[in-house]
Amino acid sequence: MEDLSYIGKLREDVERCVKCGLCASVCPVYKIRRLEPLLARGRNVLSAELLSGREIDWRVLGKRLSLCLCCNLCGENCPTGSRGGLVTLALRGEAVKRIGLPLWKRLLYRFILLDRRTFGMSLRVLSWLQALFPRRTYPLRHLPQYL
Fold first, then answer.
1. Would you list the DSSP string of 47-65?
2. Which of 88, 49, 48, 83 is nearest to 67 (CA)?
3. Residue 121 neighbours by CB under 8 Å, 6+ apart
4. What is the C-alpha separation between 70 and 99, in angstroms, rounded?
5. CA–CA separation, 90 vs 87, rounded Å?
6. CA–CA separation, 45 vs 37, rounded Å?
7. Is residue 77 within 8 Å of 23, Cβ to Cβ?
8. In the structure, what pLDDT confidence band is assigned to residue 1 with cuts at 50, 70 and 90?
9. What are the pLDDT digits (tens) for 17-57?
């Protein structure tokens, strides 16, 4: 059996879910996409299957997990107290451990995000570069995604 250390620590949360579907009424992603695996109960079922030894395609799972906002509304509204946000983060951790990160993300994390001085300087440079973009009547919220 594979080492599922991240999910294994949340086994109780995974087993506590009774699949009532209350998470569907509060999940902002499910309201738009209407895909069952995006719900907390879908992720709990998937986690239980992983813990029982089922093999999955981690790349497909990673793409689906990246859609979750990790707002934890599912966990806050769960009548059994299952922590859906933590289960999602555990699944993401397993996916990253299996797939790995692309080189550009590893370099970004290692050399920019972890160094406080470099991160501050990068933000300053990006704010100067923002002047090159056309002005908008509404604020541009996600500059890194825009770039």
1. HHHHHTT----HHHHHHHH
2. 88
3. none
4. 20
5. 5
6. 9
7. yes
8. very low
9. 888 888 888 989 888 888 887 888 888 888 888 888 888 88
66: which 2 tokens?
A: 């990246």
Tokens of residue 107, six digits: 């370099």
Residues 79-106: pLDDT tens digits? 888 888 888 888 888 888 888 878 888 8
Instruction: Identify residue 112 by its one-letter amino acid code.
Output: I
CA proximity to 130, closest of 144, 109, 112, 114: 144
Q: What proportions of the chain, in percent to the nearest 5, are helix, strand and coil?
A: 65, 0, 35
CA angle 38–42–47, rounded 5-degree value? 115
**pTM of this prediction?**
0.62
Cβ distance 7 to 86 under 8 Å?
Answer: no
Which of 91, 39, 90 minimizes the C-alpha distance to 60? Answer: 91
Give the HSE-up count for residue 112: Cα atoms under 13 Å, Cβ half-sphere.
Answer: 14
User: If DSSP states are collapsed to H, E and C, what string results for 97-140?
Assistant: HHHCCCHHHHHHHHHHHCCHHHHHHHHHHHHHHHHHCCCCCCCC
